Amino acid sequence: MLDVQFGGASHPGKYRASNEEAMGSFIPSSCREAQSHGYLFAVADGTADPELGGIAALTAISVVTAEFAKAANGSMLISLLPRLVLQANAAVNNHMLANRTLTRQSWTRQIVTTLLACALRYDQAVITHLGDSRCYLVRAGLARRLTQDCMPLHEPPMLRLNSAAEADQSPGGHAPARVPGETLRPETTALSVQAQDVLVLSTVGLHARMSDAQLASIAGQRKSAAEIARELVARSVELDGNDNAAAQVIRVRAIEQGGAYRGRTYRLAG
User: Fold this and answer.
1) Burial letters for 239-249: b for 16+ Cβ neighbours within 10 Å, e otherwise?
2) Neighbour count for residue 176 (Cβ, 10 Å)
3) Residue (of 84, 107, 23, 25) closest to 57 by Cα position
4) Which residue numbers in the chain have pLDDT < 70?
5) CA distance 187 to 3
6) How many independent structural domains does the chain possess?
7) Domain region containing 122
């Protein structure tokens, strides 16, 4: 069966008192659940307000992990993950609107968070994201970025909550959580993984000043995933440290061959 080792680490950086990042995961409790659901790992990087950005990130992560756990057995990951990201977007929006009487004075900018989710099942990995958090594949000593930063001009492309004034002008007091003038379209990619592959999920504070070669050198070590995550974060703080930094590291130790029929994955005998 699919066997992975994983670990995560984060740091507020050199100059920030708070950490607006969040990480989460769904780990199957049995072989059957590994085949019906798989593994899920996610990172989020909240911005705009030290407190509310962190709340937005935590909300996004909690929704994605909880809804992944409740998904129907054998759900197609390539369609499930984007749907969960959009659910997280709605939850961030609704949570903040429900508490706007308490937080109105803090709403000087849009409250936003990136969100990146990576699911693994059989020998497949599916990555969905909004924003500039990234997923890297480290294989044979080389790092390859699997995501492209979604950064439209002047507008961070993240899960966002419009201002209180915009919400008040919207029917029912509900402003859509979206990039103004655009529809949220999470970017999704899928790939086959191999034993000894390492996947690194990182926030911008980690990869902003770290080269692909540096990341590959650290992630390719014969250390535990948790040790690698801590080393990646520590190195990023040394290189820069102006922002929060977080990393989730997933090492693939063994895979289970899977086939596909009408978009659904199943175990191959043998």
Assistant:
1) bbbebbbbbbb
2) 17
3) 23
4) 48-51, 99-111, 151-183, 258-270
5) 26
6) 1
7) 3-264
Contacts of 121 (CB under 8 A, 6+ apart): 2, 34, 35, 37, 38, 39, 77, 258, 265
Helices (H) and strands (E) in the chain, counts: 8, 14
Radius of gyration of the chain (CA): 19
CB atoms within 10 A of CB 134: 23
Give the largest Cα separation in the chain, rounded: 62
Asked if residue 82 is part of any domain, the answer here is yes
pTM value is 0.83
pLDDT digits (tens, 9 = 90+) for 21-35: 999 999 999 999 999
Q: Where are the alpha helices (DSSP H) in the chain?
A: 31-36, 52-70, 77-98, 100-103, 164-169, 204-207, 212-219, 225-239
- In one-letter notation, the amino acid at residue 25 is S
Distance CA 196, CA 224 (A): 12
CATH code: domain of residue 35: 3.60.40.10
Does a structural domain hold residue 219?
yes
User: How far, in Å, are 74, 80, 221 from residue 261 at the CA level?
Assistant: 12, 17, 37
